[in-house]
Amino acid sequence: GQQVMQIPQYQHVQEGEDFTTYCNSSTTLSNIQWYKQRPGGHPVFLIQLVKSGEVKKQKRLTFQFGEAKKNSSLHITATQTTDVGTYFCAGHPSGNTGKLIFGQGTTLQVKP
Amino acid sequence: DGGITQSPKYLFRKEGQNVTLSCEQNLNHDAMYWYRQDPGQGLRLIYYSQIVNDFQKGDIAEGYSVSREKKESFPLTVTSAQKNPTAFYLCASRSPTGTSNQPQHFGDGTRLSIL
């Protein structure tokens, strides 16, 4: 079946270090979305990428969508304790706009 | 997110009992979704509905049932056939169907435990 794999599952960093999570789909995606879930909370939408090779930035966060529209990454520069949480990628398979397939998530811990 | 209300926040189920989780939205969204979240496994889709009076099974529908009689409401029943129901259940909605570029908005979730 259609799968979205995300690595790593966990990442511990020292405050100020960079962090990257990677997302790979078994099928071509029409778009990819990124969500953040704080401990004890619910996922909150961060951003969406639609075009092949697209790069978007939100302050210290950089999001990329691969040329083949099958992979994506989220890079955080100079992490802060407020970045703690689980980051999920989620994609709509091409041709099916109803179903969103989530990756397993990457849980980020930041040591002050 | 504002606009999606899940209740109760915590729920306990006895063996052999059916329980229903409520999800209400006032965002006028056509599509609604139920996910189950277990530690380290991300979000798994249980059921989704793109329009009133219609719904589709997700990846782990066995032991669950839903209804979509009103646009605003998408209740999930965890039946006694679901042998491992302890999890965090998240409801989400999205506007409108046919437009894949819209994000999903999540409720605060319901934590279900077995007594």
What is this structure's SSE topology?
The complex is a heterodimer of chains A (112) and B (115).
Chain A (H helix, E strand, L loop, with lengths): L3 E4 L2 E5 L4 E7 L3 E9 L6 E6 L5 E4 L2 E5 L5 E6 L8 E9 L7 E2 L3 E6 L1
Parallel strand pairs in A: 2-11
Antiparallel strand pairs in A: 1-3, 3-8, 4-5, 4-9, 6-7, 7-8, 9-10, 9-11
Chain B lengths: L3 E4 L2 E4 L5 E7 L5 E7 L5 E9 L2 E4 L6 E3 L9 E3 L8 E8 L10 E2 L3 E5 L1
Parallel strand pairs in B: 2-11
Antiparallel strand pairs in B: 1-3, 3-8, 4-5, 4-9, 5-6, 7-8, 9-10, 9-11
Number of helices of chain A: 0
Helix content bin of chain B: under 10%
Question: What percentage of amino acids of chain A are in beta strands?
Answer: over 45%
Strand content of chain B: over 45%
Helix content of chain A: under 10%
Low-confidence stretches of chain A: none
Q: What radius of gyration of chain B results from the CA coordinates?
A: 13 Å
> What sort of overall outline of chain B do the alpha carbons produce when their principal axes are compared?
globular
Number of strands of chain A: 11
Largest interface: which pair?
Answer: A-B, 25 and 28 residues
Task: List the defining traits of the structure above.
heterodimer; A: 112 residues; mainly beta; five-stranded antiparallel beta sheet; 11 strands; B: 115 residues; seven-stranded mixed beta sheet; globular
What does this 3D model show about the protein?
The complex is a heterodimer of chains A (112) and B (115). Chain A is an all-beta fold and 112 residues long. Helix content of chain A is 0%, strand content 56%. Chain A has strands at 4-7, 10-14, 19-25, 29-37, 44-49, 55-58, 61-65, 71-76, 85-93, 101-102, 106-111. In chain A, the strands form two sheets. In chain A, strands 2, 4, 5, 9, 10 and 11 form a six-stranded mixed β-sheet that branches. A five-stranded antiparallel β-sheet of chain A has the order 1-3-8-7-6, with no helix packed on it. In chain A, strand 4 and strand 5 (44-49) form a beta hairpin. Chain A starts with a strand and ends with a strand. Chain B is mainly β and 115 residues long. Chain B is built from no helices and eleven strands. Chain B has strands at residues 4-7, 10-13, 19-25, 31-37, 43-51, 54-57, 64-66, 76-78, 87-94, 105-106, 110-114. In chain B, strands 2, 4, 5, 6, 9, 10 and 11 form a seven-stranded mixed β-sheet that branches. A four-stranded antiparallel β-sheet of chain B has the order 1-3-8-7, with no helix packed on it. In chain B, strand 4 (31-37) and strand 5 form a beta hairpin. The radius of gyration of chain B is 13 Å and the shape is globular. Chain B starts with a strand and ends with a strand. The model of chain B has no long low-confidence stretch (mean pLDDT 91). The A-B interface holds A 1, 6, 9, 30-31, 33, 41-45, 48, 50, 88, 90, 92, 97-105 and B 1, 31, 33, 35, 40-45, 48, 50, 56, 58-59, 90, 97-101, 103-109.
